[in-house]
Amino acid sequence: MPDTASESLVAKLVFAGPVGAGKTTAIRSVTDSEPISTEMTLSEPAMGEKTTTTVALDFSAATLDDGTPLLVYGLPGQERFAHMRPIVLEGAFGVVVVLDGSAIDIADQCEHWLREIRAHRAGMPMVIGITHTDAVAEFSLGPVRAAIRRCGAPVPTFTFDARDREQVAHLVRALLVTME
Amino acid sequence: MPLELRYAGLDTAMEQRLRLATQALAAHRLQARAAAWDGTRCDIVAADPHDAYGRRVIDIARRRGTPVLEIVEALATVARLTRALHDLLSRAAPPATQSTATAAPTTSASSTPASSPLLRMATDPALRGADVELRRDGAVVWLLASTSRVVSASVSDRLRACEQLASNAWSIAAIGDRQRSRPPGEISASLDAFLLMGAWSARAHLPSYPDDDVGLRDWPDLGAAGTIAEALVVVQSLQRFRGTPERIAHRHGLARTDVDACLWAFQAAGLLDRSATPSAVPPPTRPGGLFSRLAAHFGLRVA
Q: Would I find Zinc-finger among this entry's keywords (chain A) (predicted)?
């Protein structure tokens, strides 16, 4: 990746994570345009207020100060699209893993996504963002931190509001700091 | 120490102009940084008086005695914004905010009482890493190290406790087992960010952190502390290398007071580890010029 990225005329950032965690919302917050989403109505019972799901991937773009395109992709969360992950991850300078703080198996999901992404590239810079924590009285970071320790190197892990541009940007800042 | 500017009720284009104008203040020897209004105390507020949210923020700022710049059509350019900010800040800002070519990290004599919640959480063995309760005038805020969350009945209670974390305004005590079934409310937020913002706002008055070699095993949850990019650098440094406050400040060109504030906050959160070994994973190769461009786009100052 480093050789490709340093020579590349574009920057590529990927948002990954399970269905309903807030990837599409976070991408919308951090880019200049509404993401192109391939969404369908949920075939299973709706997840709270969520009635659609991304069935392929999200794509949006921003422009860096010097005109370099920043391409932002959202990895589909469904396992049937797992074959797309290596393709989408190729050439990315980092990955933001978005997890749902209200999920009872959030620690398992965290471990799954860390291993999934590291299987593609061992040293891929990553950061974890956890949504919906303000609505969950019992939420605790402890199990997530334990899962990260089991997977090896520490990863920045922030609770955040995917609708808040500044908080999403702060996640990316943490990602960049780990690359220094 | 840079002046803190908060803005509210502005569209994206005006936000960008305001950020540029804030940076342009350096030409007037004024260091300042801009961020969205988050309810915490700041040095100046810039808001649109024609926007309902902007008007609300202006009201709050005026009640607090914070200088306000009302963003009107006449201030539509970066140059005019810069001039207006400079004029307002020159009338309101103390001399200490003027930047100098030879500015060095300063540590003033600490005026933070040892009995303040921040320092007690950091130094009292009975409270460090424990679940504690802050009380003031009937308001109650829980700081739960066990879950890394702060719980309160309202956002304003939490913000007030955060602003006064380094003072004696709030009493602090461990939460007893009988109390646990009766939380003060349902407003939940990150404890790590709460402690960092509380320490940061009082950093000019905190005692120097002891010259101990420390490390961090876990990343603090700093998602809600987006205005404090320096903390990211401190955390990354502590994860890679063990270090004393002076060494960290020197290595990364940070003010000693900034590093001390981070360490007091992380210690109060129970995250600092004197036995942690540095991460053995070498840092990934960063993609050269692309990194600088990404950092600039996302507001990360590259040393």
A: no
- Assigned domain for A3 exists: no
- CB-CB under 8 Å, B286 with A180: yes
Chain segment B67-102, per-residue pLDDT in tens: 889 898 778 888 888 888 888 877 664 444 333 333
pLDDT(A56) > 80: no
Tell me the sheet residues that pair with A72: A13, A60
Domain range spanning residue A116?
11-179
Number of domains in chain A: 1
Q: What is the pTM of this model?
A: 0.76
pLDDT at B107 (0 to 100)? 39
Instruction: Name the 3-class secondary structure at A131.
Output: strand
Specify the pLDDT at position B279.
57
Looking at this predicted complex, what is its ipTM? 0.86
Q: Does B36 touch chain A (CB under 8 A)?
A: yes
Chain A neighbors of B281, CB-CB under 8 A:
123, 152-153
Structure tokens at A87: 């393709």
* A21 membership: H or E segment, kind and range: none
A-B CB pairs within 8 A amount to 145
Q: Is residue A1, in this structure, part of any structural domain at all?
A: no
- Paired with A15 in beta bridges are A74, A96
Query: What pLDDT is stored for residue B227 in this prediction?
Result: 87
Q: What is the pLDDT of residue B146?
A: 93
Residue A155 has pLDDT above 80, yes or no: yes
SS3 call for B236: helix
Whether A6 is covered by a domain: the verdict is no
B151 Cβ under 8 Å from any chain A Cβ: yes
| Mean pLDDT computed over B148-159 | 94
Contact criterion met (CB < 8 Å) for A154 and B279: yes
**CB-based contact A176 B223, cutoff 8 Å:** no
CB contact under 8 A, A154 and B239: yes
In a domain, A171, yes or no: yes
Nearest CA in chain A to B286: A179
CB contact under 8 A, B286 and A179: yes
Dihedral angle of Cα B154, B156, B159, B163, to the nearest 10 degrees: -140
Instruction: Inspect the interface and report whether the beta carbons of B219 and A154 lie closer than 8 Å.
Output: yes
Answer whether B294 sits within 8 Å of A166, measured CB to CB.
no
SS3 for A2?
A: helix
Element (H, E) at B239: helix B229-240
Instruction: Round to the nearest angstrom and report the end-to-end CA distance of chain B.
Output: 17
φ and ψ of B236, to 5 deg: -60, -40
Chain B partners within 8 Å of A167 (Cβ): 223-224, 226
